[in-house]
Amino acid sequence: MDKFFLVFLLGLLIAAHGVAGNVSCKQIGMLEELGSLDIEEEEENDVELSEIPSWNSERGAKVLVNVDSFGAVGNGESDDTEAFRKAWEVACSTPKSVFLVPQGRRYLVNATRFKGPCADKLMIQIDGKIIAPDEPKNWDPNFPHTWLDFSKLEKTVFQGHGVIDGSGSKWWAASCKKNKSNPCKGAPAALTIDSSSAVRVRGLTIQNGQQMNFVISRCDAVRINGVQVSAPGDSPNTDGIHISESTNVVLQNSKIGTGDDCVSIVNASSNIKMKRIFCGPGHGISIGSLGKDNSTGIVTKVILDTAVIKETTNGVRIKTWQGGSGYVRGVRFQNVRMENVSNPIIIDQFYCDSPTTCQTQESAVNISEIIYQNISGITNSAKAIKFDCSDTVPCSSLVLSNVNLERQDGSVETYCHSAQGFGCGVVHPSADCLSSDDKIAEPVEEDIRHTEL
Ligand SMILES: *[C@@H]1O[C@H](CO)[C@@H](O)[C@H](O)[C@H]1NC(C)=O
Ligand SMILES: *[C@@H]1O[C@H](CO)[C@@H](O)[C@H](O)[C@H]1NC(C)=O
Ligand SMILES: *[C@@H]1O[C@H](CO)[C@@H](O)[C@H](O)[C@H]1NC(C)=O
Ligand SMILES: *[C@@H]1O[C@H](CO)[C@@H](O)[C@H](O)[C@H]1NC(C)=O
Ligand SMILES: *[C@@H]1O[C@H](CO)[C@@H](O)[C@H](O)[C@H]1NC(C)=O
Ligand SMILES: *[C@@H]1O[C@H](CO)[C@@H](O)[C@H](O)[C@H]1NC(C)=O
Ligand SMILES: *[C@@H]1O[C@H](CO)[C@@H](O)[C@H](O)[C@H]1NC(C)=O
Ligand SMILES: *[C@@H]1O[C@H](CO)[C@@H](O)[C@H](O)[C@H]1NC(C)=O
User: Relative to the CA of 79, which ligand 1 atom is closest?
Assistant: First the structure.
C-alpha cells in the first residue's frame, strides 16, 4: 500500500470513532498528507510555451512539418483535411518533427484520425485556428464520436496559442436536450487524445465542441497546463475536459466555461490532480456520472486544489446512477471559492439524465473517503450541501472541514440522506445531519431526485 492510503486510512480510522458534528480538527490533520499525490505538477516554464522551432535539417534539430507545405490553404473555406493528413504522415514518421499549424489562418478540417505510434519526440504546434465543418448532416458517419482524434502517442507535446473550434452550434440545436422532438443521439468530441502516454498539452484553446470539448481517454501520464475551454452556457453536453479510463493526469492553470461539466472524471480513472482551475459557466467539477445501465464505475484518488467556481449549477459533484456498482474512494476538494453556485457541494446517487424516469435500485456505486476542506463562498440555493446517497449503499467517511457557504437572501442548510461522516472546524451550514459511521440516517421522503435534461 502506498503512503497516500496509509495516511488516509489512519486518519479515517480515527475519524470513524468520532461522532457526527464538531470533531477535533487534529483528526483532519492526519488527512493533510493526502495532498501529496504521487503525481507532480509541472513547473511553470519548464519549456517555453510556443517556442517556435526553426527549420533545420541538421542532426539534433527539429524538423518542421508545416501543413501549408502540403497544400493547406487556411482561408476557412477550402477543405484542408487532405493536407493535414499528409502532413501528419510525414511528421509522425519523422523523428523530432514538429507538426505545425501556423498562426494567422483558419483551417477547415473534417473529422480525422491522427494515429500513432509516431517516431520519437513529436511536437504538435498549433498556432492557427482549426475549424470543423458546421453542418451535422454532412458529417462523415465513420466518425460519430470524434472530430480531431489523436491516438497511440507517446511522449508528445501539444502546444501553441492556437484555437480548436468545433463549430458546434448546429449540433447543439439538433440535440434532444434543446428540442425534445429531436432524436437523442451523440455528437463528436472536438479534441480527443486516446490510448496515449506521457502527453503534454499547453496553452491551447478548445471551443464550441460539437459535444464534449476535450476528451482524454485510456491515457497515462498526461499534463495539461494553461488550457482554455469554452462553449456557451446553454450548449448541451459540452463537457469541458472529460477524463475516462485514465491515470496520472494533472490539469492545472486552466479556465473552463461550458454548458455541461467543466471537468468530468469517469470510469477507471485514478490519480487525477486539478490545480488552479477556474470553472464557469457550466455544471461544475464532476466525478461521474458512473454506474449507468448497471455498469461498474471506479474512480479513486482525485484532488481538486485551488479553484474558483462561478455561476454554475453545481460546484463539486459526485454523480452516480442507481443500479451501478464499483466505487469512488479517496477524493479531496480543497481551497475552493464558490460564487453564485446552485449546489456548491453535492453527492447525487440518484442521478438521472435520461428522458425516461429512473428507478431506485438495490445496487449503487459506493462512495467513501471524500474530503471537503476550505470551501467557501456564495450559494444561490438553500441546500448548499447535499449528500443524497443510496439507501442500500450509504456514503461513508464524508469529511467537511472549514466549509462556509452563505446565501445572499436567506438561510442555508445541509441535506443528508444515507450519508455518514463528520465535520471539523467551522462548518456552515452545519454537518450535523451526517450520521457517524455506525448509524445510518433515517430515510427521509424528499423531492430531491434530479432529472437533468
Ligand atoms: C469533408 O466533408 C465534406 C462535407 O462536410 C465533404 O464534402 C468533403 O468531401 C470532405 N472532405 C474530405 C477530404 O473528406
Ligand atoms: C423542434 O423540432 C421540431 C422537429 O424538428 C420542429 O418542428 C420544431 O419547430 C422545433 N422546436 C423548436 C422550439 O425549435
Ligand atoms: C470501466 O472500466 C473498466 C476497466 O477499464 C472496464 O473493464 C469497464 O468495461 C468499464 N465500464 C464501463 C461502463 O465503461
Ligand atoms: C439493471 O438491473 C435491474 C435490476 O436487476 C433491472 O431491473 C434493469 O432492467 C437493469 N437495467 C439495465 C439497463 O440493464
Ligand atoms: C482557502 O481557500 C482560498 C480560496 O482558494 C484560499 O485563498 C486560501 O488561501 C485557503 N486557505 C487556506 C488556509 O489554505
Ligand atoms: C446568480 O446566478 C443567477 C443564474 O444562475 C443569475 O440570475 C443571478 O443574476 C446571479 N447573481 C449574481 C449576484 O451574480
Ligand atoms: C462501501 O465502502 C466502504 C468503504 O470501503 C465499506 O466499508 C462498505 O462496506 C461498502 N458498502 C457496501 C454496501 O459495499
Ligand atoms: C467546533 O470546533 C471549533 C474549532 O475547533 C471550535 O472553535 C468550536 O467552539 C466548536 N464548537 C462546538 C459547538 O463544539
Answer: 11
Between vectors from CA 203 to CA 202 and to CA 208, what angle results, nearest 5°? 115
| Closest C-alpha to 214, from 269, 261, 155 | 261
Phi, psi of 171 (to 5 degrees): -65, -40
d(CA 9, CA 428): 26
User: How does pLDDT run along the chain (453 residues), one tens digit per residue?
Assistant: 445 444 554 444 444 444 444 445 555 544 443 444 555 566 554 444 344 444 444 445 899 999 999 999 999 999 999 999 999 999 999 999 999 999 999 999 999 999 999 999 999 999 999 999 999 999 999 999 999 999 999 999 999 999 999 999 999 999 999 999 999 899 999 999 999 999 999 999 999 999 999 999 999 999 999 999 999 999 999 999 999 999 999 999 999 999 999 999 999 999 999 999 999 999 999 999 999 999 999 999 999 999 999 999 999 999 999 999 999 999 999 999 999 999 999 999 999 987 777 888 889 999 999 999 999 999 999 999 999 999 999 999 999 999 999 999 899 999 999 999 999 999 999 999 998 864 444 444 444 454 444
Give me the catalytic one of 17, 145, 283, 428: 283
Contact 142 CB / ligand 1 (< 6 Å):
no
CA 267 to centroid of ligand 3, rounded, Å: 6
Residue 380 exposure: Cα atoms within 13 Å on the Cβ side: 10
DSSP 340-396: EESEEEEEETT---SSS-----S-B-EEEEEEEEEEEEEESSSEEEEEE--SSS-EE
Dist CA 132 CA 159 (whole Å): 19
| Spatial distance between the Cα atoms of 407 and 381, rounded to a whole number of angstroms | 7
Question: What cell does 259 get?
Answer: 454548458
